[in-house]
From TrEMBL, chains A, B:
Cofactor or coenzyme needed: Mg(2+); Co(2+); Zn(2+)
GO molecular function: aminopeptidase activity
UniProtKB keywords: Aminopeptidase, Hydrolase, Metal-binding, Metalloprotease, Protease
Assigned protein family: Belongs to the peptidase M29 family.
EC code(s) of this entry: 3.4.11.-
Family matches, as InterPro entries: M29_Exopeptidase, M29_N-terminal, Peptidase_M29
Protein name: Aminopeptidase
Coiled-coil ranges from the UniProt annotation: none
Pfam families: Peptidase_M29 (PF02073)
Stored SUPFAM superfamilies: Thermophilic metalloprotease-like (SSF144052)
Organism of origin: Siminovitchia thermophila
Source lineage: Bacteria, Bacillati, Bacillota, Bacilli, Bacillales
Length: 410, 410
């Protein structure tokens, strides 16, 4: 077996055993593009070998999607295949596991009418609302991993020879996901523990507010009563552990929807629906985004914020040291799954119910009452840098260092 | 544009304009393997350009299907994705067009437990029952075309160099579908007319019985009252023409379910569910298959016949001259879509309602009463050769030549 094939097998095994942690008799649903067919087949094989009852692969082709955006009539972007939504919903009810293998080029939808994109995101969000509740409350096991496409590899390594770009991206993915290590499963166990130590510290402190200071950023974020910091591995309703994102370097919680004030500036480009948004500043008053400026993609960003009422508010606060391996690789992946792990970030849109004590069993209305945001969307963007300081402010008003110069301060 | 690319575009255009004959605002549903991605993208593009509202591509991977047969537990083969069935059913109700692009290797399922295959065929047949009624009564436009896979091309051209096999199969497909001609759409119009002349002759004659004589074959097939010969283009409920199979060289009708007597021997291998069945003889008494012998794949053939009650009876009688272009190409395609057009054939299983006067508006029970067979399956097999004579027997008992030495005798 070649070295590449060996790492590919380890990565497929990680996806199945650590990512969704497939259980005997369980169904696995995989969402993927056509880009890495051999890798997907390896995942399917390993899932059956690990006891899966059925593996359903939902293949999508980037070019077919793009042809639709370019050539179909407007009306069709208000529709999302309801059977697909029903399928995912019923499989979630039955306790299936869900894997997404992302590989799209960030430029896939460049030049597409932003209204078409916004309409389709909205239609998808509405159709998949119930399914996404299963995911966002961690009732079921799910994971998001990545595999290269030619266009994505070209975007990330534009200066490499054309025939080496995909290999270089695979290498970067193997490294970021620890698939290049001797025993990747053991490495993930250790990594999981170290993130959980940060989580435990923050959950004891129960800061009332976080105050962010950096060039272009002066932002105060209130944390709701009963907020929970979370990181690395999650546990589903049945008690099975899973890893929702691979890689993951963040510890995160929910902001109080109405308690965000000040200004924040992004530090890495945001790739959204295939478009790049960059050089942007958001101004918050009582949680709501009241001003938006962007050097690139301002219309797309405004469209995102106008998705629904909830997309005017934040739903996630995440901490990642500037020295994280992905930050140190100095690779800009143009993909949130990787780039969010290089930097402190926050998210526009829905808040995770599992980041609140008892939240998994609360209704949407109860969660809102506690300050958790609801939206059909959830989009992370990067705000961290080596110039970022963060203070935690306790109930009694005491300031304690959480981050200094982009690194953990405890 | 290369010569190959030119023919590929013509073929995609044929599929869209002659095959499903897409109408403005219509949805096109495409079932395909992952083998000919570029060709599928061309079809999608041409469908949108011809006015399609939406093109849904349902990709399936042969290797993923095979992994399931090899590694999944028994129980899963009794299940067919009900959402997929629901989707196709509802799209059919809404007047969508359906295209299947077949490409599987005939050896795909070699060595798989025949019980698993039979169970899954049965589950699929049951789940897709309503959808198949739309197809079999020609209420909606549908077409079956082909594209090469590497394994299929290797099977058809085992002696060609590995890097030429796919090109050779494309060439054979272009030739069989007239995509290699200057104006393929005009060529299909002409071909359609010439088949319709045979159809009109037979529909005037209204033979009571056909009597087949050939080595290993002495078979009498009664034709039901009101039977209709059909060939080449069909017309859907709305009056739009479409071409259900490309290529197609046959004119065909329905047998009387209970009026088949004698012995028939196949003349070309039957590829069924990825298995080869060959050298077989079926004996009929009052329509029912009462004896089955096969040199290869006898268990698979018996499994097919045991699918349900209706799979013990015939559902189609089709006439194809031995001099048909596909027969003359001397290529054995190991694929019914092509091989049936090289030879007279009959089909085990369900009968087409549109081959009976008023049949499209009859209930299943009414069709049965007229002698039309019902089954969840429909499998053609080849019985023609240059030694086959067929007589038509009129109401008054007069014998008239229909075929002599494998050729039309009128
Ligand atoms: Zn995050
Ligand atoms: Zn997030
Ligand atoms: Zn036929
Ligand atoms: Zn047939």
């Amino acid at each position: 077996m070649s070295h590449f094939q060996e790492q590919l097998e380890k990565y497929a095994e990680l996806a199945v055993k650590v990512g969704v942690n497939i259980q005997t008799g369980q169904t696995l649903f995989i969402n993927t593009a056509l880009n890495s067919v051999e890798f997907i087949r390896l995942i399917v094989k390993k899932a059956y070998e690990a006891g899966a009852k059925n593996v359903i692969v939902n293949w999508n082709d980037d070019i077919v999607s793009r042809l639709k955006y370019d050539l179909a009539p407007d009306e069709v972007f208000h529709e999302f295949p309801k059977w697909r939504a029903k399928e995912m919903e019923e499989l979630a009810e039955q306790g299936a596991a869900f894997m997404s293998v992302v590989s799209s080029s960030p430029d896939l939808l460049k030049g597409v009418d932003p209204q078409r994109i916004a309409n389709f995101q909205k239609a998808a969000g509405t159709a998949l609302h119930k399914y996404r509740q299963y995911i966002q409350s961690d009732k079921i096991s799910w994971t998001v991993i990545a595999a290269p496409s030619a266009d994505w590899a070209k975007k990330v390594f534009p200066d490499a020879p054309a025939d080496e770009q995909i290999d270089k991206l695979w290498e970067a993915i193997f490294q970021a996901t620890r698939a290049d290590q001797e025993d990747p499963i053991a490495a993930w166990k250790k990594h999981d523990q170290s993130l959980h130590e940060k989580v435990d510290y923050l959950n004891k402190k129960r800061y009332k507010q976080l105050h962010y200071k950096a060039p272009g950023t002066d932002l105060t974020i209130e944390l709701p009563e009963g907020h929970l910091w979370v990181g690395a591995g999650s546990t589903n309703e049945k008690g099975d552990e899973f890893m929702a994102n691979m890689p993951t370097e963040e510890v995160f919680t929910v902001p109080h929807k109405l308690g965000v004030n000040g200004v924040v500036t992004n530090t890495k480009p945001l790739s959204y629906g295939g478009n790049i948004i960059d050089g942007f500043t958001l101004t918050f008053e009582k949680g709501r985004i009241v001003d938006v400026k962007a050097k690139e993609g301002e219309e797309i960003l405004k469209g995102l914020i106008e998705t629904d009422e909830g997309s005017h508010y934040l739903g996630e606060v995440a901490l990642v040291p500037f020295s994280s391996p992905i930050s140190q690789s100095n690779i800009l992946f143009y993909n949130t799954l990787f780039d969010e792990n290089a930097s402190n970030h926050i998210a526009i849109g829905s808040a995770y119910a599992f980041c609140l004590e008892g939240g998994k069993n609360m209704s949407q209305a109860e969660l809102e009452a506690k300050g958790l945001n609801t939206s059909i969307t959830h989009v992370d963007f990067m705000i961290g840098s080596d110039q970022m300081d963060i203070d935690g402010i306790t109930e009694s008003g005491k300031r304690e260092p959480v981050f200094r110069n982009g690194e953990w301060a405890f």
